[in-house]
């Protein structure tokens, strides 16, 4: 659609401007920590890609208003940007200062979610999950569940934002799934909101993958998580035939990654849940499946291995996105696929962490490295 293309072109152009402007300057915007447990890049890179995505969506507000694309489109876009501003600003502050702890960022995302509940009425009033229906029957419960879900999604996108193209492409997949279902239900407003968000994210992706010329940063990750969750909630609000489990399955990869990380850090290891480590599933894929590059530390090898990591997780994300769009109105089937995804994830993680991953998953060049 025209709106998708426009958002892509605006975002790609703005991201290119940011990349070129910060290539030899803007040291405060760059991630100079190359030794942390989750660091896999070879040289400092700007972490402010979220700025171009946010600015592109702001530009689409003006463009949609001038072009009269769809009644209410510019208003909803503007409200999404305004409500998402606390989450975006808190993340961007961390990108620039490296001094904003996870809790204040999570609180900012929760504030953004509550603002959306107030201005966009995106409280969760349907769950099709036993036990939660009684909670969402009350306005306070519906609002609090939306706050938890949206803030959790914002944090989830930030957690999987560890490799070039990983988080941004997963967001594109989820938004395109929402767009498809919106098209099936005839909801043109949500369709355009999802397509514009996907287009703006893909414009950033163009410069992030495969070479990592710019990073999404916490600001971009938190905002895109917020935006994706809110567009999905608008779909549920406006279309009662859509199962409330549809967005959960579509986004189950980043969501389950977050839940599993909390379990792994707190229950298994007895550590604080905000303590970073290098054993996320995407980190294990990078270190243990792409064996031909293990041990090489030159920039070219690290960049190539980085770029080869994301497709593994894209496929995992697709395992959830595809059935979500096929069975978007059937909660029972969606629930089964959510359980199946959890089983596949845990099994895959268990195999890789114990160096027992299937040979067909491993990429080798020459002799495998010693452990």
Care to give the gist of this entry?
With 371 residues, the chain is an all-alpha fold. 69% of the residues lie in helices and 1% in strands. The chain has 14 helices and 2 strands, in the order H-E-E-H-H-H-H-H-H-H-H-H-H-H-H-H.
Question: Main traits of this protein?
Answer:
69% helix; two-stranded antiparallel sheet; disordered C terminus; 371 residues; mainly alpha; 14 helices
Structure description:
The protein has 371 residues and is mainly alpha-helical. It has one domain. The chain contains 14 helices and 2 strands. It has helices spanning 2-21, 49-67, 73-97, 102-120, 132-136, 139-159, 166-185, 188-208, 217-238, 245-250, 252-268, 281-289, 299-326, 331-353; strands at residues 30-31, 45-46. A two-stranded antiparallel ribbon has the order 1-2. Mean pLDDT is 91; it is low at 366-371.
Number of domains: 1
| C-alpha-based Rg, rounded | 20 Å
Q: Specify the biggest β-sheet.
A: 2 strands, antiparallel
Helical run tally: 14
Q: Mean pLDDT score, rounded?
A: 91
Distance between the termini: 50 Å
**Class of secondary structure makeup:** mainly alpha
Shape: globular
Provide the low-confidence segments as ranges. Answer: 366-371
Order of strands, main sheet, comes to: 1-2
Helicity, in percent?
Answer: 55-70%
Number of strands: 2
Give the helices and strands as they follow along the chain: HEEHHHHHHHHHHHHH
Strand content: under 5%
Quaternary structure annotation:
single chain
